[in-house]
Amino acid sequence: MQSLTVENLGLATALWLGFVGVLFVLRKFVPGPVRQGQLLKDGTRKAYKLNAFYILLLVCAVIAGGQATHLFSLSTVHRLFWPLLVVGNVFAFVVTGWLFVRGRRINRERGLPVGGVLHDLFFGAELNPDLWGVDLKMFFYVPSLIGLMVMNLSFAAVQWETLGHLTTRMMLYQAFFTIYVFNYFQFEYGMLHTWDVIAENFGWMLAWGDLPFVPFFYSIGGWFVLRNQEPMQGYEVAALCVLFVVGLWLFRGANEQKHRYKENPSAPIWGKTPETVGGKLLISGFWGIGRKLNYTGELMVYFSWTICTGSESIVPYLLPLWLVCLFSHRAWRDEQRCHAKYGALWEQYCQRARFRMIPFIY
Ligand code: NDP
Hints:
It is a single chain. The chain has 362 residues and is mainly α. The chain has helices at residues 6-29, 52-68, 75-79, 81-109, 117-122, 136-163, 168-186, 195-199, 204-217, 220-227, 234-263, 286-289, 293-307, 318-342, 344-352, and strands at 34-39, 45-49, 130-131, 134-135, 276-277, 281-282. It has 15 helices and six strands. The structure holds NADPH dihydro-nicotinamide-adenine-dinucleotide phosphate. The site of NADPH dihydro-nicotinamide-adenine-dinucleotide phosphate has 20 residues, from helix 8, helix 11, strand 6, helix 13 and helix 14.
């Protein structure tokens, strides 16, 4: 691990800006399907080019080529962990300042109300800022999740270079994470109907959350998988695979059903015409069983790769525990929003789908 010298900070800055900059240029120029976002308050819809999956394939090809030809090794990312973390934080604060100044200026020019300073810094001043025709809120998921994948793969690169092979836990951990990131970008359009995209402005909270928080904190398990070389039993491997697959099915299935319903309210769900409350809220499929089963599924996925770290330390479990808190708070905030938006229909929906995340318990 390298310390915070000027030289390492310079190298980390070059790596960080190169990584984000190249992804931004790819976002702009790589072709991809164009989808319409949700109806906005002014009656318009924003068009999004969704090419993250192709960008991911390109990045994987470059990584594989670099590793195979020994042109570079991902273990460098691991060695530069601390300098990269510092640079990532500085980057998030610089972006926040820029979003703040630009958002308030645009709001003034458009005659829109200008929020409080702290509010606009933390939550952001603009809902959908873009730069050079690229929507920034959707773009930030690209370096965030690809950065997470790279950070995780760097643990595998270190193990390979020190042991000459990968342990079962490392392979399982990497497989779960890589499938999750691929699946995420394969269904990138699902993000268009998420709360962050439809309801949150883009400020420090989302910018810092995407970069650096996700790549650095969400890969915390990698440190422990790298350290723990205890073999895994066959039944442990099987149980973790089941937990991951069922969790992914729930997470992706619920998000997919809601997305399909928003795009086409009569598209069948589990082979039947969808049932709704007042033609607005879906109660078929997963959405009739629980109001936030997409959160439950994602938690199962997070637990599956965290358990790969073993029981040596509580530290990697901070990630799923953090998500439990985030999702509980988020579900509460989202339900307040839905209640304000749908009124009596929301109450009717809550009577039909009585539980949030765990049927008969919560
Ligand atoms: P949801 O995908 O549940 O979206 C909430 C919105 O969906 C509501 O505001 C409402 O918006 C609409 N909605 C809710 N219930 C219904 C219904 N029954 N029928 C029709 N529309 C409904 O939540 P999030 O946006 O918070 O999360 C999206 C995904 O992102 C989740 O799978 C979550 O796990 C994941 N996530 C992951 C995080 C991580 O750090 N790993 C962090 C945050 C989220 P509308 O106004 O459109 O009706």
